[in-house]
Amino acid sequence: MNQIAITHTQWQPICQRSDLVADSGVCVLTGDRTLRTVSAAPKSIALFFIPHAEPQLYAIDNWDPLAGAGVIARGLLAEIDGELTVASPLYKHHYRLRDGICLEDNSVRLGTYAAAFDGDKVLIATEPGNH
Fold first, then answer.
1. Three-class SS state of 17
2. Strands 11-16, 121-125: parallel, antiparallel or unpaired by DSSP?
3. Residue 5 reports pLDDT greater than 60
4. CA gap 61, 109 in Å, rounded
5. Where are the domains of the chain?
6. What is the mean predicted confidence (pLDDT) over 55-84?
7. Looking at per-residue confidence, does 14 or 40 come out higher?
8. CA triplet 27, 30, 34: central angle to 5 degrees?
9. C-alpha separations of 36 from 31, 32, 41, 111, 127 in Å
C-alpha cells in the first residue's frame, strides 16, 4: 500500500488587492511580529502583481544574497526567454519569479511562496516551496 504525505498550506493574510501596484513589487512582512526567535521571526517577502500573467501573484524572498540587501521588491520585472524575472536593483542579477533561481548564477536561489487572492484579500503561504 502506498502512503502519501498530505500537508495543508498555512496562509497568512498580507494586504488588500488595492495595496498592490500592477506590474510592480511591494515588500511585505510575514510571520508573527511579536516573536523574536530566529525560526519565528518576521520574514521580508517581495510580492509582485502582474495582472496579465498566470498566475497574477508571485512571492519571493526580498533578500538578495549577492547584494547583501533587502531590495528585490524594488527590482525591475522583465521577461527573459519566456520566463518572468525580477532584476535586483543593485547588481542587476535576474531571478525567475516561478522558482527563485538566479539566471546569472544558478547556484543562487531565493525562496518562493504561494500567493493567492481571496476576494480582495491577498494571502501568502507561510512556508517557502517551489510554486
1. helix
2. antiparallel
3. no
4. 9
5. 11-125
6. 96
7. 14
8. 120
9. 11, 9, 6, 21, 18
Q: Are the CB atoms for 100 and 110 separated by under 8 Å? A: yes
What contacts 83, CB < 8 A, 6 or more positions away? 96, 97, 98
CATH number of the 11-125 domain: 2.102.10.10
> Is the distance from CB of 46 to CB of 72 less than 8 angstroms?
yes
Does a cis peptide bond (omega within 30 degrees of 0) precede residue 55?
yes
> Do residues 103 and 95 lie in contact, with contact meaning Cβ atoms separated by under 8 Å?
yes
C-alpha span between 25 and 33 (Å, rounded): 21
Report the pLDDT value the prediction gives residue 31, as an integer from 0 to 100. 74
Cell numbers 496562509: residue: 11
Question: What is the grid cell recorded at 68?
Answer: 547583501
pTM of the model: 0.85
Phi-psi region of 119 (alpha: psi -120 to 50; beta: other; left: phi over 0): left
